[in-house]
Amino acid sequence: MPQELQQRRESRPQAMIRKYKPGDELMIGQIYYDAVHQLTREDYTEAQRNAWATTIEGDDAWAEKWRRRCDRKQPWVADVDGEVAGFIEFDADGHNACTYVSPDHAGKGHMSAIMARIFQEARRSNLIRLYAEVSITARPFFERHGFRVVRDNPHEVRGVPILNYIMECWLQPDVG
Fold it and tell me: CA Rg, the chain, in Å?
């Protein structure tokens, strides 16, 4: 491995993968909003992004909305130096409901670390299939992790047409 690449890898802060804890909800909500509005620009129009992730509401209402969601979904997070860098909501039936990374942490491997944990949890729970509704932007990430497109999923969000994909991944049983 070239020395420069090795140094870059070694200088990246490692993420601790853990479950959501109270207090994370504002960071998770902000990541959701920022990822939609910054990372999907090449794939979705401004109208689509605004329908998908509406303007951040008043602090209290917005925080409460995300606290309730996080309490219900209990997402897995990548914690880098005490800050949430990304999150994945993983339901007991194998559904990945949300997969979002902070634009500041995109491409640093943190989401792959969470996905590896999701796969461990799925196997521990004897699941044979994971599935998700995946944006155009996130499709390559999911494909790198073994997901395949089942079908296109055109739908409307707040009256605005948006395309994503229904994707799934069939799990191989652990051997050994």
Answer: 17
For residue range 103-147, what is the model confidence (pLDDT) as tens digits? 999 999 999 999 999 999 999 999 999 999 999 999 999 999 999
pLDDT in tens, 60-107: 888 888 999 999 999 999 999 999 999 999 999 999 999 999 999 999
How many other CB atoms are there within 10 angstroms of residue 106's CB atom?
16
DSSP 96-119: EEEEEE-GGGTTSSHHHHHHHHHH
* Alpha-carbon gap, residue 86 to 78, rounded angstroms: 5
Taking the complete model, does pTM exceed 0.85, yes or no?
Answer: yes
Residue in this structure with the two tokens 């969000």, named with its chain if needed: 157
Domain membership of residue 39 (yes or no) is yes
d(CA 14, CA 75): 19
CATH classification of the domain holding 89:
3.40.630.30
Domain for residue 154, yes or no? Answer: no
- Nearest Cα to 64, choosing from 19, 26, 20, 21? 26
Structural domain harbouring 49 = 3-127
